[in-house]
Design a protein that fits this description.
single chain, alpha+beta, ten-stranded antiparallel beta sheet
């Protein structure tokens, strides 16, 4: 007797129907679900710009360092406070601009995936911050010393990352692949020119850090403005020469910053650039015109520094899309990609730490 049979009129028995069509349908649905899961997980479609593909590619550009961030691996924890301005409060209803003083847990770092690299040889310096207001809302941001992003889309970002993977035959990236990326994307060529010609600062303290992605500031009256923020140092800029870089110690930036803190607080002013209609708010590779309105929205005041091995910043994921009320993300695809890759990297290194597979600051196995 079939569970799928029908009773004929005038009869008390059921006619039999084959269950094979239903079994085939169930198998098809299950297969489609598995296919969709594999697609989202990055198991198929390897050219897709998934968080897994990104993180795998970043890891492939250098030697493995379990327990450390996949990018900007070397850094220090810093702490201090943020004081907003009335002008910032007028642009955004976020509590961080209204509260007299907001505690900050941050991180200063250098570009690259080597946690034992020489500070002075890193072209890119970075700052990440976590602000928690008195009502429990969080604002996390990760900024870099470059003024714009090298490529416009997540797919281009993955292409650029893969171009940096060393060739097994030479142990170095294939110059032809990177040249192809620069030929394809004018912004990549412009970024390369910036890297070659822009002066190097001699300290984390006198470096400008730019949030090259766009965000929306939402005021108390509901009005919105697209903005990009940057932290501009109060310390005067001093250029670091090639000779100084060659003679600098392995932990030059960390040692120099610790000496500054011993003499007093280190401060930056946060400025936002407000977009005009038509500005490319969803393309971080495009710079907005210099004449756009600039508004000082606060001051960052750093007072202490700790090693990242046991500092408060170690287990913070500085996801740029963790935002308080009054600030929202844009449709910038790089912004979404950064958020996803940060999460993937965070999960991997936390698993390595929890399982005892992390390395310490000297590269030996053990707790980081």
């Amino acid at each position: 007797m079939s569970l799928f049979g029908n009773t004929r009129a005038g009869q008390g028995s059921r006619t039999s129907r084959s269950p094979l069509p239903w079994i085939a349908l169930i198998a098809l649905i299950a297969g489609l679900l598995m296919l969709g899961f594999a697609w989202l997980a990055g198991w198929i479609g390897r050219d897709r710009a998934t968080a897994q593909a990104f993180t795998d590619s970043i890891e492939a550009t250098g030697s493995p360092h379990p327990g450390f961030r996949r990018a900007h691996s070397k850094g220090v924890c810093v702490s201090g406070s943020f004081q907003g301005t009335p002008e910032g409060a007028a642009l955004s209803s976020a509590r961080v601009f209204q509260q007299p003083q907001v505690p900050v847990q941050g991180r200063l770092s250098i570009g690259g995936g080597d946690p034992h690299g020489a500070d002075a040889n890193a072209r890119v310096r970075s700052m990440a911050l976590q602000l928690i207001s008195d009502d429990g809302q969080q604002w996390r941001t990760a900024m870099n010393s470059f003024p714009f992003f090298a490529v416009p889309t997540a797919e281009a970002f993955l292409e650029q990352t893969r171009a940096g993977i060393p060739d097994p035959a030479t142990g170095k990236p294939d110059p032809a692949k990177m040249a192809a990326v620069q030929a394809k994307y004018p912004s990549a060529r412009a970024f390369g020119q910036w890297a070659k010609t822009a002066p190097w600062s001699d300290s984390w303290a006198n470096t400008t850090y730019n949030g090259v992605n766009s965000f929306r500031f939402i005021a108390a009256d509901g009005s919105e403005h697209f903005v990009r923020w940057s932290l501009r140092p109060q310390a005067p800029f001093v250029e670091m020469t090639a000779e100084q870089r060659a003679q600098a110690g392995l932990d030059y930036l960390a040692d120099e910053f610790q000496q500054r803190l011993a003499q007093g607080h280190v401060r930056w002013d946060m400025w936002v650039t407000v977009a005009d209609a038509g500005d490319p708010v969803d393309d971080p590779s495009q710079v907005w015109p210099e004449q756009r309105r600039q508004v000082k929205v606060g001051t960052l005041d750093l007072t202490s520094m700790q090693p990242q091995a046991d500092g408060a910043c170690r287990d913070i994921n500085y996801d740029p899309l963790i935002l308080p009320k009054g600030i929202k993300g844009s449709n910038d695809p790089i912004l979404a990609a950064r958020s996803a890759v940060y999460s993937q990297s965070f999960n991997r290194r936390e698993h390595e730490i929890a399982s005892g597979n992390a390395t310490d600051a000297t590269g030996k196995e053990g707790a980081r």
